[in-house]
Amino acid sequence: MAPGRGDTDLILFKLATQLVSRGLRCCGTVQINSERADTGPCDMDVQVLPEGPVLRISQDLGRSSRGCRLDPAALETAVGLVSAELSMGADVLIVNKFGKHEAEGRGFRGVIAEALSMGIPVIVGINALNLPAFEVFAEGMAASLPPDVSRLDAWLSECIAKKVAAA
Q: Which of 26, 48, 49, 119 is most exposed, with minimal Cβ within 10 Å?
């Protein structure tokens, strides 16, 4: 969790970039927000890691719309691509957000569970609104980490070292 709007997205993007540059196999999604010229809400895209496509996951519902802008079909496309990538192995799964769909039992929930069952560390962005649902889903297994790239990297390095030592 990061305090500012879009901060978690930037942190996870920087983390993924850093991990890939070190040769780690990253799987998952990072979110890229693009401001709109018409001053409406930003467009939300996710990049499928490590080198997958960038998918628009937001819908333009008009300037006055107050409803959820998430495009559920685009999100599920991202989930399918990440699931296929995960089946080929990974050092880490990064999920840009445990959002409303995950809170309701859809989205990346199954992919997160699959990664954990494979012993792959998972880093998930979260906001205060969905934190209670995430805590129920995590069943006490989650660790709260500071929104800092170097601290996340250190935690991940520790997880990977433990996994290697156990093998």
A: 119
pLDDT in tens, 42-94: 678 899 999 889 999 887 665 665 555 678 899 999 999 999 999 999 999 99
Amino acid identity, position 155? W
Measured between alpha carbons, how far is 140 from 155 in angstroms, rounded to an integer?
17
Nearest CA-CA partner of 108 in 51, 10, 28, 44: 28
Tell me, yes or no, if the pTM score tops 0.70. yes
Cβ(29)–Cβ(78) below 8 Å: yes
61-88 in b/e form (b: 16+ CB < 10 A) is eeeeeeeebbbeebbebbbebbeebbee
